[in-house]
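# step 3/5: fold
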Amino acid sequence: MAKHTLSTLEAFLIFLLVMMTAVTVALLSLLFITSGTIENHKDSGVPVTQSPPTTPGSTATQGSTLTHGSTATQGPPVTTTPEPPLFQNFSGYHIGVGRADCTGQVADISLMGYSKTGQNARGILTRLYSRAFIMAEPDGSNRVAFVSIDIGMVSQRLRLEVLNRLQSKYGSLYRQDNVILSGTHTHSGPGGYFQYTVFVIASEGFSNRTFEYMVTGIVKSIEMAHKNMKPGKIFINKGNVEGVQINRSPSSYLWNPPSERARYSSNTDKEMIILKMVDLNGVDLGLISRGLLFSYSWFAIHPVSMNNTNHLVNSDNMGYASYLFEQEKNKGYLPGQGPYVAAFASSNLGDVSPNILGPHCVNTGDSCDNANSSCPIGGSSMCIATGPGHDMFSSTQIIGGIIYQRAKELYASASQELTGPLAAAHQWVNMSNVTVWLNSTHTAQTCKPALGYSFAAGTIDGFGSLNFTQGTTVGDPFWDTLRDQLLGKPSEEIKRCHKPKPILLHTGELTKPHPWHPDIVDVQMITVGSLAIIAIPGEFTTMSGRRLREAVQAEFATYGMQNMTAVISGLCNVYTHYITTFEEYQAQRYEAASTIYGPHTLSAYIQLFRALAKAIATDTVANLSRGPEPPYFKQLIASLIPNIVDRAPLGRNFGDVLQPAKPTYRVGEVAEVIFVGANPKNSAENQTHQTFLTVEKYEATSATWRIVHNDASWETRFYWHKGLLGHSNATIQWHIPGTAQPGIYRMRYFGHHRKQDFLKPAVILPFESTSSAFEVVTS
């Protein structure tokens, strides 16, 4: 392909940007690299090797090269919570559900997903929640927990800390093998909760404030589910969802064998699976929903209806589906409250977009659905896919609404009961050194992590900020030289291993201030009767997911467990970017360039998950090697955004109204009030208030104000406008829905300001304010 020639100005600006980043990393490395930063397993570099399959469909369990290791995190002494007595004389499972807030800070932090410089949080559209489901056998002998979290992905540090705290409270009841943490993959949640350098840089530092908020919320949701366990039954249903997806790399999909593609009616997975949970009296407990393909696959969709111009924290289309379902079931409750819990979890969404109008050149309107996702004028930065709505908010509602409506239908008709034992299997694996058996005589190897050129190009859902193009299979001398000077040259070994990927960043060979990518990865599977949930540590493409499911089902069948439904749960436990098929890898679009362990990554995962399936089917899970435990870094690069004292204008107080509400609004209009504000990130430390806003209606009969909306409501928006020297404003909007009752309303603002007196530590103090009353009329 033709190479772009950079102008002198472009080259200088790009060089300046890269130099600033490199200098920052180098300085921070000096601060942290000498401070004794790692607790990890002494065998973390041990290669993973498996014996070749001895019979078709079978896989030998891992050999003795995997050994038990030391504890990754050392918490306080275990104070085990007594296990509540379980009623045993029934058919079904003990089922518990719980939901807890895990939003984190909503300002002065990067939103995690697009990796777009300057896309920092500046307010909130909806809260983020952790939704936990626990299932135990009637006698309590086995249990599993599945947690769906409204975040971009689960980081390794997040999982290790959650497990550590669960161990401190419950002992060995909840462990790395029977607890799955899965991110919904919203691109509008805060970052800052990672420990590997690539993600720390993308998050502009580590935020202990957000990390603690998330960990606390996840653990709380599990605690709630644990306390709420009661006898119940689980029903499963499945059906197609139409009109919400496109494949964003269709040219890559076409690299897969024609005979394989001919078996499927679409280049995306369309089928949804619903797990309906009810108590023994038939009362709803909750659901887990995933999309599933044509036969036995999960619903897969990228939560990127909210594009990379967004600055409001929210849970995107899948979160909106949860919002609608929970509001439907929890009548009379505010969002985030009520007993019913509905989780819409991620699956093999790697190449699946909700922007169904497809990619077009924004400057000409022409289609750019080509192998490079590039426009004749403007290149890849002009090629953008759009959703069905008039803006990203309405697109989110349309896509999420369709998903919810189909889930509601499937839920109502669910009648097939899940029965049978519960099981769980888990291993830690060094994914940078897995020997993959291609057949009985030939092997291949996974690679140390590396990112290719097309990684920097981004996708049609969010293009990269520099002039890179998808489908790049040849390096560029300018970028190669710049990388070599700043980070060192990639080894010949890593370049050879990743071919045909031209390496942009050899992250597996970069270790300062910490390793840039994980080597040790979780592979995990739980079974609930005839349902197997495969916890994948990344984003599988459509065909990758199909191959993995089929392989796992075949392995179960080989050892006597027929008719298993294998479902993929995405973004689990540790994030490792994407996993394409070997054929898709050759095209080197974004997903392939982001397949960090090389062209045989999928084959390695298939081999590893088949081993877990065999262990469960043959009741030999206890014989599985634990594997080399991952590191837990003690010191991380702190957020580059400093904490400063909040200040109100002279003669004003925090919460004073700067722009009042109008006296009257009509249904369909937007009520807006502007207040003297303070940094919302303070509220992630001092949680005196559980919301930034309320909309309240005056009830004349009782002479009281009733809360009708909070900041978890889709109808409200909280914007924070950062000024200079600690000054800021807060804007609260209420997009008055057609269902609003006529009457008198007001809006309230709840915040926290940082105060620091001379020679004294900073304190965070709450405040609140109320707008003037206004009337809502229907016409």
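# step 4/5: annotate
The two ends are 60 Å apart (CA to CA).
# step 5/5: archive (pending)
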